[in-house]
């Protein structure tokens, strides 16, 4: 009986404590930073830089198809995008180009399998942008203000579709974005 109680307590913590933990992982800077001038490639084949998303509050999610926490959060991230789509919050997914042998069509199929095919996707050729940002593991989310300044980061996995966390992001956008 004690083991069952411990298991239930742990499950409750994992379910309800995760949004608090995600907030603790967020590092919001006192001063904004310029984003690196490295290009990523979109589905159309066009190269873009992070400062070209000027006007939107951008959440650039660096992820990998081989990262279990990244995969686990895809559906929640998709739900987050649906919930905030008309609020000027733009989520872009950036993965290493060399992970996708067949290109964007392979990536789209992968995301569809995890109910996340509505996500906006890009690839980082030779991981130049990730390297310039000092990102060497995933997932990491870079928060970029409407004036194209890096204002913070979220390291690790997040329960994206938790209402407390969504409101937390809305507050960051209102305060800094």
Oligomer: single chain
- SS element count, helices: 7
**Order of helix and strand elements from N to C terminus:** HHEEEEHHEHEHEEH
In the CATH hierarchy, the third-tier topology is known as: Glutaredoxin
Description:
With 177 residues, the chain is an alpha+beta fold. It has a single domain (2-176), classed as 3-Layer(aba) Sandwich (Glutaredoxin), CATH 3.40.30.10. It has helices at residues 2-16, 18-25, 68-72, 74-84, 104-113, 128-132, 163-176, and strands spanning 26-34, 39-42, 47-49, 57-62, 89-96, 120-124, 140-144, 149-155. Strands 1-8-7-4-5-6-2-3 form an eight-stranded mixed β-sheet. A hairpin with a 4-residue loop joins strand 2 and strand 3. The radius of gyration is 17 Å and the shape is globular. It starts with a helix and ends with a helix. Residues 4-21 have low confidence and may be disordered.
Give a quick precis of the structure:
The protein is an alpha+beta fold and 177 residues long. The chain has helices at 2-16, 18-25, 68-72, 74-84, 104-113, 128-132, 163-176; strands at 26-34, 39-42, 47-49, 57-62, 89-96, 120-124, 140-144, 149-155.
């Amino acid at each position: 009986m004690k083991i069952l109680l411990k298991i239930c307590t742990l499950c409750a913590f994992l379910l309800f404590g995760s949004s608090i933990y995600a907030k603790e992982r967020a590092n919001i800077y006192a001063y904004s930073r310029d984003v690196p001038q490295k290009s990523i490639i979109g589905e159309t084949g066009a190269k873009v830089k992070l400062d070209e998303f000027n006007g939107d509050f951008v959440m650039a999610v660096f992820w990998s198809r081989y990262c279990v926490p990244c995969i686990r959060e895809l559906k929640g991230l998709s739900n987050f995008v649906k919930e905030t789509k008309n609020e000027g919050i733009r989520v872009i997914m950036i993965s290493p180009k060399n992970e996708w042998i067949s290109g964007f069509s392979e990536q789209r199929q992968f995301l569809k399998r995890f109910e996340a095919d509505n996500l906006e996707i890009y690839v980082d050729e030779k991981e130049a942008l990730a390297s310039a940002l000092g990102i060497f593991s995933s997932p990491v989310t870079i928060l970029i203000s409407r004036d194209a300044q890096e204002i913070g980061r979220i390291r690790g996995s997040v329960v994206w579709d938790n209402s407390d966390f969504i409101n937390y992001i809305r507050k960051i956008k209102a305060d800094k974005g």
